[in-house]
Design goal:
The chain is of the alpha+beta class. It is built from 2 helices and 2 strands; from the N terminus they run E-E-H-H. The protein has a two-stranded antiparallel sheet.
Length: 100
């Protein structure tokens, strides 16, 4: 399907209830695009904060296996979100697979 240059499909930072990708078609200035921008900004901010937290936990050296597992799960979620943003912005890589 051909779309004029300004009317491109954008991968949104959320999925359908069935886990399928969601897209918006438009010029990138509508309410759905603005909401997607806000969600992406929050996701990147959370990933940055999580990275700092991970560094502090690893520097402490007295972290339980459960804490490390929880940290790893949150890092996987943050990485998935950031890769989805990169894909949406045209970073040119294969979409990340999410086994869940």
């Amino acid at each position: 399907m051909y779309l004029p240059r300004r009317q491109q499909a954008r991968l949104l930072p959320w999925t359908s209830p069935e886990g399928k990708p969601c897209y918006v078609i438009g010029e990138g200035t509508g309410p759905v695009s603005r909401l997607a921008d806000e969600v992406e900004s929050a996701q990147v901010g959370m990933a940055a904060a999580l990275l700092g937290h991970a560094r502090a936990m690893l520097d402490e050296r007295q972290v339980s296996d459960g804490e490390l597992r929880f940290l790893a799960e949150r890092l996987v979620e943050a990485l998935r979100d950031v890769l989805r943003i990169a894909e949406s912005r045209g970073a040119g890589h294969a979409p990340a697979e999410d086994p869940r």
